[in-house]
């Protein structure tokens, strides 16, 4: 019977020197130590003691009372590889359980060996780059709750994945008091939740890449098509707002300036909602990526049929409403994605349509270092999209950062060219407050996004940054992504590879990448200001 656990070294020393009663002893047991503490905590996971109920169902697997088992992350997913095998020694004891030395065990035991040495578990080598992981977590130091993913465009391997706030696996593996558990579980920032994989969010304007590709590929629009933006559009009594009046814009301008009106016009055309759903599915949205970690969520991409079926059971609605399509076009409404999915989406755009199966485990080695299994990069599929469409989109995403009217222009880097898209996802139907009004409570502040790739001309990494309830994508998430990219190229990439070709060297449209003065007028984040109090179609709704 265990009398006490987790005793201090001082107490243990006192017991070992003063305890002389037979049948009572101090035992030192091994425990997993996580030298990085909270670094990559959600991805790595933690261990703790197997429960009484688990002992009943997993006894055949060799688990015994006091054993530990992986609970989350890699520790759980790769438990069979990481877990070693116990050794044993058979001895003769008396009725009080004390060992007898006057009887040989070999004279009594004939069914099998009398002892066996323990064997350690295997080593699971991850694709995570510790330097990149630290860069990402350091870049998020100024925000309360966030998630970020960085992937290698040429392999699909995950270089960094983080969810903030994190927990300390050492503390979790050592056992928490009931009070500590209750305190952590009641934390509104949800430190146990893996926000990169286990949560889904409206992508906001980062989804406009899908809307644009759907329109181009289905021949609904051409890049030269223009739409007049007066700051909103009126559908019956419903008003769908833009961030400002952009005047006349084409597709390039609409992406760079994140003009909602252009995408309302595009998304509201006949059949576009299902076209957007098809394109999104081709790029991996609405389905698990295949990583299979921490209960990875699939997200959701709505279709006309789904809305009709849902509205048929809702007495407030009658059939499919055009507002559903308009909200979908700007990444609102029922559209839900994970942060990993968005990183893979922009990696696919950068890689000419190659959608990778994401990997976080590179190989498994024996304790002696022998390679037992290797996991080479795997392409999930080649997305069927015209090279011209992808090339156009990449130029526009470059303009988001380096065009003077771009929504991320104010945070543009000066040494590395980045292409990406800002997003500000609405979480409160009442819109955001301004002027003399009091600020919104934390839970009602919009989510801030920035997703993209770098370098723009010769992409090497793709990334997605979500700051939960952070506000504007251009002013909150984009600076985080820029810091990640700049530090990656300054400290991780070899010096001889730190000067990639400029985008203009590819013969593509050259934008004002070297302009140092800010735009002539302030540009706000790409945030719709719908106030759909009486408008179910324009309201932000969750996935089913």
Task: Please write out the topology.
Blueprint: H1 9-18, H2 41-44, E1 47-49, H3 52-57, E2 68-70, H4 73-77, H5 79-82, E3 88-89, H6 105-108, E4 115-116, E5 123-126, H7 130-139, E6 146-152, E7 158-164, H8 169-174, H9 178-185, H10 208-217, E8 226-229, E9 232-235, E10 238-241, E11 247-250, H11 251-257, H12 260-267, H13 272-282, H14 304-312, H15 322-329, H16 339-350, E12 354-357, E13 361-365, E14 371-374, E15 378-382, H17 387-402, E16 419-425, E17 447-454, E18 461-467, H18 473-491
Antiparallel strand pairs: 1-2, 3-4, 5-13, 6-7, 6-18, 8-11, 9-10, 12-15, 13-14, 16-17, 17-18
Helix pairs in contact: 7-18, 10-13, 11-17, 12-15
Protein described:
With 544 residues, this protein is α+β, with helices and mostly antiparallel strands. The strands form 7 sheets. A 5-stranded antiparallel β-sheet has the order 7-6-18-17-16, sandwiched between helices. Helix content is 29%, strand content 15%. A hairpin with a 5-residue loop joins strand 13 and strand 14 (371-374). The radius of gyration is 28 Å and the shape is elongated. It has 18 helices and 18 strands. The chain folds into 2 domains: 9-126, Penicillin-binding protein 2a (Domain 2), CATH 3.90.1310; 130-180 and 196-538, 3-Layer(aba) Sandwich (Beta-lactamase).
